[in-house]
Design goal:
This protein is an alpha+beta fold and 598 residues long. The protein folds into 3 domains: 8-225, 2-Layer Sandwich (Heat Shock Protein 90); 253-415, no CATH class; 419-596, no CATH class. 39% of the residues lie in helices and 22% in strands. The protein is built from 22 helices and 17 strands. Strands 5-4-3-6-2-1-7-8 form an 8-stranded mixed β-sheet. Strands 9, 10, 11, 12, 13 and 14 form a 6-stranded mixed β-sheet that branches. A 3-stranded mixed β-sheet has the order 15-17-16. The protein is elongated, with a radius of gyration of 31 Å.
Length: 598
């Protein structure tokens, strides 16, 4: 009987389900090791083998290898690298790079395959040494320690396909692959390309590392499917990336905020001060112009990069979605990147497989306003409480608050950004509500009803333009010239614009240049409940989504009317209540006229 506190064979069996999201994340652990050992070239090599399935023959993944031209390992280091929880970066003073936990090579490998073999060399590939781990041998207890490395030639098939068998390097090979959900080399490359390009985008963009991906069949080594990983920047500020045209060679986003778009937060921890950098970006106006930009190739690319990119030592840990509004398709049009040093791993809650920063993500899910209200605390009292409990999240509160504030600003900007392109769409005004309201207003004028805007019609064209544009600019409307052009080219009396305004009102009404400008407050709940759900494109929406939109709009309208009912109910008896009721009745009479125009 084995009385070990942790029987090795059972522990390793449990470690096979250690939480890697997929094979791409597991492969990234091997690439981390390559980069940590100063590799300039890393290769992902996918070997397929023909298999007979009933009446047909198909190619299936047989082995996966990662090859690099890094420094290689000594016999002692190789043996250590194959141990769980051991490594050369466990001490604090040696935790400045990608590695740290000593779990990467064995843990990631057994999450996908039953056998991992490693060749490494420091003085010519002919001097390569070799060791391995095999799950079946561990489970039957025939393998109880990492085999002592021996000199062993590299299999010829890898030398034929790989390009980096030079003076030093390492080759890691997975076989008996039983946990990988992707069954072909192409599927592995397709699913890994964007992720690997995003994880190592800074290394790739700075040309510190080149990552080559190859798929081949053992029966045809001359027919290789080869790709080179391009940077995949969720901030969309880099040039020459995997983003589709026209933004493959130029940035699709611009920096948000001041010149640097970077906020530096100082974190004091364990007697030292560290910097946490947060960067912001937002889509260019032209990227969102036209019909359904989200359905274009670059819009679909952005949809795969939604979230806050958590960077550690220049490598992405996770694209965190705890701050994301998942039902809002506009979330693809902003970017946030937070970067911190490995010394703050405990503060951020970095997991040993380097896929999550749990403490940061947990705070992203908190509705602070609601939480403080429920607990009867101020924000400072909440911070003090976390400090008293030695909760590391206390050091992240200010950072999360800053992100939340900037994200609110970016979302408000995105809501108003497309106003100009919508307003300048001349063709849609032939039978629009604005056109019908204009005609109804003309009838009211003929009946003797005049307003402030009618008096302004005597202004010169130049005065009208200045008056309207200034008002729109004050409200932060993105394209005042486009709105003005639409009003006068279509001879409209009314214009709706989306505005980021600090007011509890759902909308504001301004008479400017002989026109009536109705500014919808994008920060008001009624905007989302009524305007957004009805103005979004229906082309790619499912029947269920359309039904949900209608239900939301119906609910929003009823709540809006009930809010008016409550407002009227709260008015004191006498003149205040009478004036409110008269206003409702007057509005109803004009609404009847406008709606009857249909």
């Amino acid at each position: 009987m084995d009385n070990s506190i942790v029987p090795a064979h059972l522990a390793v069996k449990a470690m096979r389900d250690n939480g890697y999201k997929n094979a791409a994340y597991a492969l990234a652990e091997l690439m981390d090791n390559s980069i940590q050992h100063k590799a300039k070239n890393v290769e992902l090599l996918c070997l397929e083998k023909d298999e007979n399935l009933s009446m047909r023959t198909v190619s299936r993944i047989n082995k996966i290898a990662v090859l690099d031209n890094g420094e290689g390992m000594s016999s002692e280091t190789l043996r250590m690298a194959l141990q769980f929880g051991n490594g050369t970066h466990l001490e604090k003073n040696n935790q400045k790079g990608i590695g740290k936990f000593g779990m990467g090579l064995p843990s990631s490998s057994i999450s996908q395959a039953k056998r991992v073999e490693v060749w490494t060399w420091q003085n010519g590939v002919e001097n390569a040494i070799y060791s391995y781990l095999d799950i079946d041998e561990i489970l039957d207890k025939s393998l109880v320690e990492v085999p002592k490395p021996i000199k062993k030639p590299i299999p010829n098939i890898w030398e034929k396909v790989g390009e980096n068998f030079i003076n030093s390097g390492t080759l890691v090979v997975w076989s008996t692959i039983d946990k990988c959900v992707w069954k072909t080399g192409k599927a592995i490359m397709d699913n890994s390309e964007l992720l690997i390009g995003r994880m190592y985008r800074k290394y790739l963009a700075d040309k510190k590392v080149k990552i080559r991906m190859v798929t081949f069949n053992e029966r045809d080594l001359d027919n290789l499917v080869t790709r080179v990983a391009l940077p995949n920047d969720p901030m969309y500020l880099m040039k020459n990336t995997s983003c589709p045209e026209p933004y493959n060679n130029e940035p699709m986003f611009v920096k948000w905020g001041d010149e640097s778009s970077e906020r530096i937060h100082k974190v004091f921890y364990n007697g030292e001060t560290y910097e946490v950098k947060v960067r912001y970006s937002i889509a260019k106006k032209e990227a969102r112009e036209g019909h359904n930009p989200g359905d274009r190739p670059y819009g679909k690319h952005a949809a795969k990069n939604i979230g806050i990119s958590i960077m550690r030592a220049g490598r992405e840990l996770d694209l965190d979605q705890s701050f994301v509004i998942h039902y809002d398709t506009r979330e693809r049009w902003w970017g946030i990147e937070i970067e911190f040093p490995p010394a703050l791993d405990e503060i951020f809650g970095v997991t040993n497989n380097k896929q999550f920063a749990n403490n940061f993500s947990d705070l992203g899910k908190v509705d602070f306003e609601e939480m403080l209200k429920t607990e009867g605390l101020t924000m400072q009292q909440f911070k003090d409480k976390l400090n008293e409990e030695n909760d590391p999240k206390s050091l992240l509160i200010d950072i999360v608050e800053g992100i939340t504030t900037n994200l609110s600003g970016m979302r408000a900007h995105l809501k108003t950004q497309r106003t100009g392109s919508k307003s300048s769409d001349v063709s849609r005004y032939g039978d629009s509500p604005e056109k019908r309201a204009t005609e109804a207003t003309e009838e009211r004028k003929q009946e003797g009803h005049f307003g402030t805007s009618d008096e302004q019609e005597t202004m010169s064209d130049e005065e009208k333009e200045d008056d309207i544009k200034k008002s729109l600019m004050d409200d932060g409307v993105d394209d005042p010239a486009g709105v003005f052009k639409t009003l006068f080219k279509n001879d409209l009396k009314y214009s709706f614009v989306d505005a980021d305004v600090e007011t509890p009102a759902f909308f504001t009404v301004k008479s400017r240049g002989g026109k009536i400008i109705i500014s919808l407050n994008v920060n008001h709940p009624a905007y989302h409940k009524l305007v957004e759900v009805l103005s979004e494109s229906t082309e790619s929406a499912s029947e269920e989504e359309l039904k949900e939109r209608l239900e939301n709009a119906s609910s929003g309208l009823k709540l809006l009317l009930m809010a008016w009912g409550r407002y009227e109910d709260e008015q004191p008896d006498g003149n205040p209540k009478n004036r409110t009721q008269e206003a409702r009745q007057d509005w109803g009479r004009i609404a009847e006229k406008f709606l009857n125009e249909e």
